[in-house]
# Entry
Amino acid sequence: MLRIENLRASVDGKEILKGLSLEVPAGEVHAIMGPNGAGKSTLSYVLTGRAGYEVTAGTATLDGEDLLALAPDERAARGVFLSFQYPLEIPGVPALTFLRTALNAQRRARGEAEITAPEFLKLARAKAAALKIDFDMLKRALNVGFSGGEKKRMEILQMAMLSPRFLILDETDSGLDIDALRIVSEGVNALRSPERAMLMITHYQRLLDYIKPDRVHVLAGGRIVASGGPELAHELEREGYERYEAAA
Amino acid sequence: MNLAAAIRERNAAELPSKRDEDWRWTDLRGLIRTAPEPSQPFTGQLPPGPFDALAEDWRVLINGGEATVDVPARTEAVEALRFVARGAGSHVASATIRVGANARLLLLESYESDGASLALASLTLALEPGAVVERIVLTADHEDAVSVSQAEVTLSPTAGFSQTLVAGGARRQRLETRVLHPGGSAELRLDGIYLLAGKRHSDQTSIVTHAGTDGLTVQLAKGVVRDQARGVFQGRIVVEEGADRTDARMGHHALILSDRAEVDAKPELEIYADDVACAHGNTVGALDEDALFYARQRGIPEDEARALLTEAFVGEVVDRIGHEGAREIVRAWVAQGLRD
# Structure
């Protein structure tokens, strides 16, 4: 599925990723943990093609296709989805309009027929209900005036509607209370499948109690410095990142 | 000498210039060295007007002329008022609109030109107590045209006047609105949109004078400029001494989509009363790159994402149009204007 080799990337001329390598096979959920400033969010933006994140070396491929050569929307149409740590507010665009535009753009890019309005509304109602989102909220401008928890739920709703193949969850648990965390985690877990893979970026171990990873990686100093099973997350929670920061 | 006289007498030296404070961003004297010949009567066929489908009555002023619209008390009317310039001459047109007590008028006004004309339209609008007017102005001016509209609006207490200017610009275009606001629970909304491309220019200037207590004014103008276009917004709200409990809010926000486009804005509040609630906000900037990336990450291609966000930006003004049919015509005009 996703294969990253020796990836180097800079922001404003400062190198943040310094030779990162990582492989996430289809069907697996991997967690990336690391201290603040390690490059976690940079990795998510490099994989999704945000402007200002310059790749200076290395490769990133999805099922063998060079991701880095594609525009952000082309990557999305290939199935790459980023759940933002801080979802953007889109004034004046109702959430439903935004989602339908996105879904149809992806379908067109893949050579599929556009979704009809009734089909779309039916899908949106079902997915919103599963995430306990009031359907009327989808008629409001996307994320404008939404609480932190509501924005995160909207990210998961978009994910469920767009049905991506490769999911990046950037600090998805931040700003969520326990109830919201459970709902969001159920939403994410419902998307686990043999055809999909996920990369969870998190500072804390808490989220991993709800979304159990197959592998855990430690990102420090712009590289993966340790990898292991779920037990690695518990070790980090106990002992902190200091050891790895020193190594990096 | 006023502008009408300067045009009638073909006296280019008397056209407003950048030395006139109110015209400093819309300099006509520096642009027009020789006033064009007077416009000739036009006998050909006109294309349909933008509001033909909605109006119940039509006034079409081609290359000048005068019109009077009287809406008797307690009646309702939907009037189309077309100011049309054919050819490259100069002319002055005028319209007088009187709206009786508790009458309602939907005024659908358009400016249409097809060449390097120099045209002035002078309007006076008087609203009796309880009269409610919604004025929608759409421009379809030629890129070589110079087009000025000057409207004087006099409100009575408890009247309501709502306006939405929708401008596509011209070589020079100015839509000027002056409102005498008596307070007395009269309500005023002065909104505007400008979408400018190429070398087009559009100026929305308004002066509202609150002369009595308990008046309400809200104003929201939004513009999008591309290429080498230039948008001008001048909004002045004067609250005279004793006009207490005036509530006035003004906002102007513009998107500049290219390095060579320009927006000049001057929001002004002049307050001589003590007990008022007044506010103004003014922003000029580029499209939010973060929002753009967010939309693209969801799979929306760049051009489509830009159009979506820009349309939404302007949509806030469109949504405030009260009449549904007019609102949809303006919405379609905006969508088309952003695609061209």
